[in-house]
Amino acid sequence: MNISLRQLRAFLGVAASGNFTRTAQRLHLSQAGLSATIRELESQLNVRLFERTTRAVVLTEAGRSFLPSAELAERELTSAAARLREMGRQEGAALKLAFTPLMAANVVPETLRRFRHRHPNVEVEIIAGGPMEIQQLAEAGEVDAAFGAFFTKVSGLVRKPIESSGLLAVYSPGRYQPVPSAPGREDTTWEMLRGQPYIALTEDSPVQQVSEDALFRQGIDIAQRMTVQHLDTALGMAEQGFGIAVIPAFAQHACVRYQLAFSPISPTTSFDFSYVMRTGAPLHETLADFAELFKQVMARD
After folding, report:
1. What CATH code would you report for 5-89?
2. Banded model confidence at residue 230, pLDDT cuts 50, 70, 90
3. Which contiguous run of DSSP H or E holds residue 239?
4. Which residue numbers delimit the HTH lysR-type domain (predicted)?
5. What is the pLDDT of residues 204-222, one digit of tens each?
6. What ranges do the domains of the chain cover?
């Protein structure tokens, strides 16, 4: 007999809800996959666990008898797995890392591919969220490190610098054109945004804070402003011609997916990317190596 945690969770989910569809959704399975898992468990136990009718799914007598043991086994296995994961994190054999969504989509996949080549046995869990959200996760010790541009200093966090990045103006090809560059220069200027619709991020975004400061210093008036929460949303809006968005230079590879043109902005405005971790938490070799690979991918070395 080889009963798995997956089978126990499927059994307990259906037993609690009395519904295969809702349980499949909660467990992120197809209904056919959930049904197959239950059939596997019934085959191993050599009993029927559920009576299925057009109106309800109820436990059989064998199912009711098996329920307390299944609940105990699932609790014990889940608890043991959590303890082992925590031990792995403490020893550097597992990493739980948080990123802003654009980083998670455009820098993390290649970083993780390189990292797994070096550390095939290290388990890595990725979480995506806004800058403040992931910083709070690091502060609470719920992740080993959070990667992003953090302007607010928190006494309980240690900051490790990674790389500086400039900014790009991104826009739908044919709708907007860069300001002609000075002789010998290939970049554009903030003047490109003068009198044009602007796709802005929310005020808690480090990219937006840097951009707003530069627009103010350059005396640039915006014709119309659309505010969105995430950089990916800004890219999608720019693709549809709603205006010009400003993104970190490291994310220029995302412009290909969105069919966007981009131009470096000058005068150059840069800001630092770093990762933060809880004060007193050990900096394991695996985390330091991941950060170094992350830096290389940001620069596309």
Report:
1. 1.10.10.10
2. confident
3. helix 231-239
4. 3-60
5. 788 888 888 888 888 888 8
6. 5-89, 91-164+272-298, 167-269
> What is the second-level CATH architecture of the domain 167-269?
3-Layer(aba) Sandwich (3.40)
* CA distance to 121, 185, 206, 258, per residue, from 127 (Å): 19, 39, 19, 23
The string of DSSP codes covering 284-296 is: -HHHHHHHHHHHH
May I ask the CATH class of domain 91-164+272-298?
A: alpha beta
Strands (E), the chain: 50-52, 57-59, 94-99, 123-128, 145-148, 157-165, 167-171, 188-189, 197-201, 224-228, 244-248, 261-266, 271-278
The more confidently predicted of residues 270 and 298 is: 298
Choice among 38-42, 54-58, 91-95, 196-200 with the minimum mean pLDDT: 91-95
Do the Cβ atoms of 198 and 170 come closer than 8 Å?
Answer: no
- C-beta separation of 12 from 74 below 8 A: yes
DSSP codes joined into one string, 76-116: HHHHHHHHHHHHHHHTTSEEEEEE-HHHHHHTHHHHHHHHH
**What is the C-alpha to C-alpha distance for residues 236 and 239, in angstroms, rounded to an integer?**
5
Query: Which pLDDT score, from 0 to 100, does residue 193 have?
Result: 85
- pLDDT confidence of residue 187: 61
* 157 beta partners: 278
pLDDT 10s digits, 180-189: 555 655 566 7
User: Which two three-digit tokens encode residue 21?
Assistant: 């569809």
